[in-house]
Write a structure and sequence with these properties.
The complex is a heterodimer. By secondary structure, chain A is mostly helical. Chain A has 13 helices and no strands.
Chain lengths: 280, 306
């Protein structure tokens, strides 16, 4: 066999293997989708039914009454949006200062902030809880919003990396023109690093939206829960009644926003992840 | 990690502009700095102090010296949780191995690469809570997807999450499934940055595929492997959501409980916040040591910020 031919055969075999792998990756999610539109007889059918004998979308109406799903989405949106919008602003402003402005001991301060990455959240959650408990903030969204809006060191880190490659001349020129430092940030830096900010923004938004540990510590009342806690409660409540279509429908609703965001921005997300990993 | 000194050649002139610039810079970094002091540094020291006290979270903190640490040494639940946490990290090498193979497959420029990338990445962006709900259902002994699949090839699957022997493998499989796309993506990016001529030169020298892998590919992706091992260990040490949703009681005979699950139970269920702080300090130390060992073993990988 010629080398070209051999490569072609190998490529086809790999294609088949990758496709089989892809089926394994996607099958559980398709199963979820299919269960959510099944009638009870199909849910417990043996052998399994992948395509329901009759599509039943009633669970997608039922879920809104079955638990505080709507308020869960609202709460998750409030938290995720306020955290990422304010936090991205504070983070990029700090990244600009760390990368481009002169300040005594600025690298020492940066290293200090970086040390936060080595301390896991579970090691901080008890004192944080006691702080917010004495402020009377338990069972409000505030403990989930306030700490991160001061900035995210991971984002500061990546934007600083990105900014270091921006030539100083651009900034020096603006300084000589007498532009204020905030003006430089707003009019020169932000447009330059917009793609990097956007990528970090999306990744952060996803992380906050999917967070579970912090919300479960602070939130108790049904109307305060985030969407993740709501579906966990759905699971605990309705599994006893074996109402799996209902549980799966609610879980699909919880998955969907991130899935849509991912599919729209997949190119940017995948690129920024790849860059962040390679640069370490 | 170390920050290389930025080489500002000119000495800081104490001009008006310099002063203004410093003030502006300070204001710009103030928010993260204040946030760090209030929400990281203060809680960090508070945790250490609380770990030496008997405290229910509300009342006074009674200093008890190293009592909590002594108690921890003979705490069977903690030992179990620690064992489980490390055991479930067995998924890390499995996941890295699979993802490297996948990445090498995707690196050949076969049609559909983008689609594959997206499909493999979907579990990564999916909410862990929803995924846990889904897998709990998939692991159902009677009607779950996993056992239905196994019955096709004549295997009578167990009730995965109710069985001490299968609950950890079940969680490992799910964790590997969820994280595969992420590692694969990083490996793929690393592979794409390997210059083609390395392989061409090796071909000319008559090196076979395995030798090429051993002497070119593996060394070239080593920094990524290192990064993934570290982040996976740090993440794995904090496993919580899956356990909380899939095995709310910690699994049969506590065989699925992780350290963070145990800390959470102690702190917010039993209100033993002093003891829970001790556990959390130990967790922090373990993560710190693991990170340190990895850095020592891999001092060739430079993590310079520049």
């Amino acid at each position: 066999m010629s080398q070209v031919k051999r490569k072609k055969v190998a490529d086809s075999l790999i294609f088949v293997a990758l496709s089989a792998g892809a089926v394994f990756m996607i099958a559980p999610l398709l199963w979820m989708l299919s269960t959510s539109v099944k009638q009870k007889s199909d849910v417990f059918a043996l052998p399994p039914v992948w395509i329901p004998s009759e599509f039943d979308f009633s669970k997608y109406l039922e879920i809104w009454q079955a638990g505080p799903l709507l308020s869960g989405i609202q709460n998750s949106l409030i938290i995720s949006l306020s955290v990422t919008i304010v936090g991205s602003f504070t983070s990029s402003l700090a990244a600009f200062a760390f990368a481009k402005l002169r300040l005594k001991n600025k690298n020492a301060i940066f290293l200090l902030l970086l040390s936060a990455m080595m301390i896991p959240y579970p090691s901080l959650m008890i004192p944080q809880f006691s702080m917010f408990a004495s402020a009377g903030w338990v069972d409000t969204l505030l403990p989930l919003i306030i700490p991160p809006i001061f900035g995210n060191i991971v984002m500061v880190f990546f934007l600083r990396q990105y900014l270091i490659n921006v030539p100083n001349a651009v900034i020096e020129a603006a300084k000589i023109d007498g532009t204020s430092f905030f003006g430089i940030f707003y009019r020169i830096i932000v447009p330059l690093i917009k793609p990097a900010i956007a990528a970090q923004f999306i990744l952060w938004f996803m992380a906050v939206w999917n967070d579970y540990l912090a919300p479960i510590i602070y939130l108790n009342s049904p109307e305060k829960l985030t969407i993740q806690l709501v579906i966990a409660n759905f699971n605990a409540t309705y599994a006893i009644q074996t109402d799996y279509p209902l549980i799966m429908a609610a879980s699909i609703i919880a998955l969907l926003p991130m899935l849509i965001i991912f599919l729209i921005f997949q190119k940017q997300i995948i690129e920024s992840i790849a860059i962040s990993g390679v640069k370490g | 990690m170390s920050v290389s000194k930025t080489t500002s050649v000119q000495k800081p002139r104490k001009s008006r502009l310099y002063r203004q610039e410093s003030i502006a810079a300070f204001i710009f970094i103030l928010a993260p700095l204040v946030g760090y002091l209030i929400f990281t540094l203060y809680p960090f020291f508070f945790s250490i102090y609380a770990s030496f006290t008997n405290w229910n979270g509300l009342g006074t903190m009674n200093f008890v010296g190293i009592d909590n640490y002594v108690k921890l040494l003979s705490d069977d639940y903690f030992r179990k949780a620690l064992f489980n946490t490390f055991f479930m990290m067995l998924g890390i090498p499995i996941g890295l191995f699979l993802s490297l193979i996948l990445a090498m497959g995707l690196n050949r420029g076969i049609p559909g690469t983008t689609t594959f990338r997206v499909i493999y990445y979907i579990p990564v962006v999916s909410s862990l809570a929803a995924i846990s709900v889904l897998w709990q259902w998939a692991y159902n002994g009677d009607y779950g997807l996993v056992n239905q699949f196994l019955s096709l090839i004549g295997i009578d699957g167990p009730n995965w999450l109710q069985n001490t022997a299968t609950v950890k493998p079940a969680l490992i499989i799910m964790t590997v499934w969820k994280g595969l796309g992420y590692s694969m993506l990083l490996y793929l990016a690393a592979l794409q940055s390997v210059p083609k001529m390395y392989y061409e030169a090796a071909d000319l020298d008559g090196a076979n595929s395995f030798q090429q892998f051993l002497h070119i590919t593996w060394p070239m992706v080593k920094p990524v492997t290192f990064f993934l091992v570290i982040t996976n260990i740090i993440g794995g040490a904090q496993m919580f959501t899956e356990i909380n949703i899939m095995t709310p009681t910690g699994g049969p005979e506590y065989s699925a409980a992780t350290v963070v699950f145990y800390i959470w139970k102690k702190a917010f269920d039993n209100l033993q916040m002093g003891y829970a702080s001790t556990l959390s300090v130990v967790l922090g130390i373990i993560i710190f040591i693991v990170t340190l060992i990895q850095f020592k073993l891999n001092d060739r990988s430079s993590f310079e910020i520049d």
